[in-house]
Amino acid sequence: MNDVLVARTGITKRGHPVSVNRPPDEDLGRHIARLFITIVDQPEDGVIEDFIVSETGFIRILLTGEWQALEGGEWRDYAGPILFGAQSRPFRCRVRGPFAMCGFAILPGAWRSLTGIDHRDLADRVRRLVGPVGDRLDQAGADPWSHGPTFAALNAAVRDWIRLGSGEVDAVAERFDRRIHVDPTRSVADLAREIAVTPRTLDRRVQASFGMSPKMVLRRARFLDMAATVRGLAVPDEEMLAALRFYDQSHQVREFRHFTGMTPGAFQRASTPLFNLALESRQRRKFELAGQADERIPWLA
């Protein structure tokens, strides 16, 4: 961990900063996943340069700190409500000075009805949210230090956003999303049979909702499960550990290089606070989907 970081929204037992995050209101549960607030202090001239790998789209309302994302080989400034597509590779970003942000994950099944775009058009990219939706979200995140009112305002802003579109949820994408969190080692053909669609239909619906192929979605989920184990953000039993093992060491190295740009050993030693924040929020959702929502989160200090 970077010793100059002071997390105002919690830490893990290993000292990694985390967000305050919670599920959305029940009526929004098919559209968005975890809502979060993150507040971290560091020196005014301190810089965190890191990456993120998220399996859903995100709204991140960047409130304080000087944020930049690496796009096309150039660092570009971002602030306010930003729509992030899901990532198939490390998305480089950095922030200077103390920072605060809030937002939520957009569930794949609701991506099209909320954003109005094919997820492939924003995968591994970001876009500023402007207009009424952006203004509403900017207002919702105005005071992240007041957690309860901020979460209530974010829930209300999402309801308004849903009303602007059809509100429809792609049931195929929704079922696929739930199944990959239970077991990402299954084959695409097996999942298509269980969801009762052809592999071709599954591929088309997943690409539009997740931004990439079903095979890549499963591959990324498998990597994120292993990364969570490395970071102490999971409590896998022996059966789960066996399922997470890669075919061989070279396969593991290839996957870590693809998703982090590092070997497994280098990743284990590296400080990745921005990656960890998104990963920990994902793990909270997995914990909830496993029916353990009422239990204490085991990795929190």
From TrEMBL:
The entry's keywords: DNA-binding, Transcription, Transcription regulation
Keyword DNA-binding among UniProt keywords: yes
Keyword Transcription regulation: yes
Domain HTH araC/xylS-type: 170-270
Source species, domain of life: Bacteria
A molecular function GO annotation: sequence-specific DNA binding
UniProt xrefs under InterPro entries: AraC_XylS_family_regulators (IPR050204), HTH_AraC (IPR018060)
Protein's UniProt name: HTH araC/xylS-type domain-containing protein
Organism: Sphingomonas spermidinifaciens
